[in-house]
Every structure is written in C-alpha cells, then in structure tokens.
Amino acid sequence: MTELFPTAPDTHALEHGAVLAPRFDAEGLIAAILQHAETGEVLMLGWMNAEALRRTLETGEVWFFSRSRGELWHKGETSGQIQTVVEMRIDCDQDALLVKVRPQGDGGVCHTGARACFYRVVEAGGLREQP
Amino acid sequence: MTELFPTAPDTHALEHGAVLAPRFDAEGLIAAILQHAETGEVLMLGWMNAEALRRTLETGEVWFFSRSRGELWHKGETSGQIQTVVEMRIDCDQDALLVKVRPQGDGGVCHTGARACFYRVVEAGGLREQP
Hints:
Distance between the termini of chain A: 37 Å
Shape of chain A: globular
Strand order of the largest sheet of chain A: 2-1-6-5
Number of helices of chain A: 2
Number of strands of chain A: 8
Helix content of chain A: 10-25%
Oligomer: homodimer
Mean pLDDT of chain A: 95
Radius of gyration of chain A: 16 Å
Strand content of chain A: 35-45%
Order of helices and strands of chain A: HEEHEEEEEE
C-alpha cells in the first residue's frame, strides 16, 4: 500500500520539499489529528494507512484505517458524522497529519455522543468531564 | 514502566471513568497533541511513555519520549522551547492526549525554526509552505 506515495530521498526533501512523502509506521499507519476548521477545537486523533490517505485526498472526506476492526473506515458512513476536509497539513518530518474539517451530521465526531473525543480533563485526582 | 498507571477494568470505566488509565501502544507510547492554549494552533504531535507522562503531570512542563533517540526528552531543555502545561485532556478510549500549552523561549516548538510543525499544506500538486 505504501507505494502509493514516494519516500523522501533525504532530510531536506522530507522537511522542506514540495513532495508529499508521508512516513507510515511499522504497521503502515500515520496519525491524523482532526481539528474543527471554524472553532479550532481538536476533535479526535485517528489513523490512516496509505489507501485511507489517498481516498481522503481524492474525495475531500476523511477516511481512516480502524486498528480495532482492521479495515478501511469512511468516517461517518454509518453515524452520519462525515468529516469534510477544509485543509490538510503535514508536519516537519511527515509522520503526522493535521486535518481541518467541517463535521457533518450532528456536528460531532465521537462514538460516545460527545462532540469531541477529548471530553475529559486530566487533573491531580483523576479525570473530570468537561466538554 | 506502564505500571505507573492502572488499566481500566472495562469499556465503561475507560470511556466514562474518573481514573486516568492511559492505553500505551505495543512500544509503550501514547500520542500527545500539543495545542497552543491561547491561539488554538495545533503545534506538534509527540509521544510519551509512562515516565514522560508522569513527569509532565508532576512538573507542569511537557516531557516526551524520543523515538529516534530512544530516550526521555524534556522538551525545550536545550532549545529553550519549554512547553508549560495549561490543561491536559485524554480521549474517549484513553489512547491519545491533548495538551494545551504556553510555549516558552521563542514561542515555537519546531526544530526547523518554524513556529509549529504543521507549516506545509497538502495540495493536489504537492506541499506548499504556509505558516
């Protein structure tokens, strides 16, 4: 799958080149942060393999690779929470993606019903729910 | 190392419990998104092992585990780009952290000199630098 994208020939090309050369991990995955394009809220962290990334770029909707189910996952296909891509960015060493999205459906992303997955604050005594 | 934190007994405790029970991956790591506490800009994605997470919680400054160097990494110790923790959140299934920070030093996080690591936009033709 990873042959869908080239490998950067050197560090300079990786960090400053104009060629998308994502570095997938040992399992063929790259982390993708979803951020709400308007509010700036960080919504969730998901994983893409090369095919999910290709489909995301091609369709303008977020595709992931579900690690638990071991299959491609068109985010929102069953829940309605389709994530429309407004902008995609990649980091300096091309091993993380930042995807600015406009959530469709009920406007959320989380399977628990929360708007975003990061609904708990870590405090000294434990976790506290705070949307 | 991972014995520093408990394991959630079931899905309900994992997703709705008040106990911090981070799920580290096969390499003992958890992804940590750094977001600027004031501007909302997503700055970088790093990795913490249990000890890095413990130190981050204890000191209020971000510690990572460097995968390339294979060692604990007090972010900013050499660069001056210390990341002061304003708030830490964990996601629904406790395998990703969102850390809202106030960057010290020159106000940036990236080793390339860019303010944030996501300085390139992915476009049809390739990558375009845009801070």
